[in-house]
Amino acid sequence: MAPKFPFRSTILLAVIGILAVALPLLLMRIGVLDAYTARVLTMGGVNAIMAMSVNMIVGITGQLSLGQAGFLAIGAYSCIFFNFDLGLPLPLAVLCAVLVTTFAGFLIGFPVLKLSGDYLAIVTLGFGEIIRVVFINLKSLTGGPNGRTFTTEMVMNGELAFAVTTASMIVVLALLQNFLRSTYGRAIKACREDEIAANANGINIFRYKMLGFVIAAFIAGIGGCIYVMVVGFVKPDVAQFLKSIEFLIYVVLGGMGSMTGAILASYVLTYLQEFLRFLQDYRLLIYPVILILFMLFRPKGLLGMKEFSFIGFIDKIGGRLSARSKKAQL
Asked: Can you name the residues that pair with 233 across neighbouring β-strands?
């Protein structure tokens, strides 16, 4: 008899996804959540998508990459180019932009993944800076240092922006979780844990590193498209080094290797940055102090390498309730 767990997991994830989108939308409609809070939640979703992209390389593949913001910029500018310049419908433009970003990840990953450790970090850092400089000088396509605007319905409609961003994040999370449980995902994790042992067992190290890098670029392309559709504006500075470090902080704080931890940390830190705005310039001092204190007392991050399981959580609650009912009957 086929196990029921995958079916239960799919149904539960679908229900949670619907609730995660529907409940905040309902609160927005009745005025409990204002437009500003909706905007913060939307940007938290964008950051969560980018955090999953970085986590795919750093936490799952075990390679230190500091250039993911460059892929975000490629996805954002490609989306504008295909939709505004070529006149393609927005869904098709997003698809083409994501494919372009994925192909860019393949081209860049092919030479750089032959390196490892600090060398890989330096090369990916250089890649991000190259992308930024190229976009600054391609004024006819990118608008130069001033960037380009991109007017979509999501820029004006906060509810639509939140719904699309949150739904995209949940779909990406579901696909990633299923991939990581597959044979390919386990092979990538084996390369992370011990390359020598993985190679001895017939796993092609470079192939699976490349697969993880391309998947991360694919996710970053989605994040770039959603970013420019929500913000309505993009500049070459979005590819700068500090942006990649910001995404890396989400991963480290959430737990390297934990997708749900990275998502949780993305929302927490996005809200924290907005909450501390009343401190003005002192916010730049308080925010790093909070991060340092957190890492001192919780060095493995919020969830470590563990994933939050909705199935396990519900089963645990159900087991406790059934145990209490049995004790009451006795």
From this structure: 149
pTM: predicted TM-score of the whole model, two decimal places: 0.87
Using CB atoms within 10 A of its CB, is residue 280 exposed (0-12), middle (13-18) or buried (19+)? exposed
Supply the DSSP string of 243-306, one letter for each residue: HHHHHHHHHHHH-TT-HHHHHHHHHHHHHHHHHGGGGGGGHHHHHHHHHHHHHHH-TT-SSTT-
Mean pLDDT of all residues in the chain?
83
Distance between CA 271 and CA 38 in Å, rounded? 11
Q: Please give the Cα distance from 42 to 227 (Å, whole number).
A: 9
Least Cα distance to 235 among 40, 77, 105 occurs for: 77
3-state secondary structure of 28: helix
Structure tokens at 158: 């906060």
Q: Are 209 and 61 in contact (CB under 8 A)?
A: yes
What tens digit of pLDDT does each residue of 229-271 get?
999 889 998 988 888 888 988 898 888 888 888 898 899 888 8
Helix (H, G, I), strand (E, B) or coil at 148: strand
d(CA 253, CA 112): 26
The parts of the chain modelled with pLDDT lower than 50 are: 1-5
| Nearest-angstrom CA–CA distance, 164 and 169 | 9
pLDDT the model gives residue 19: 78
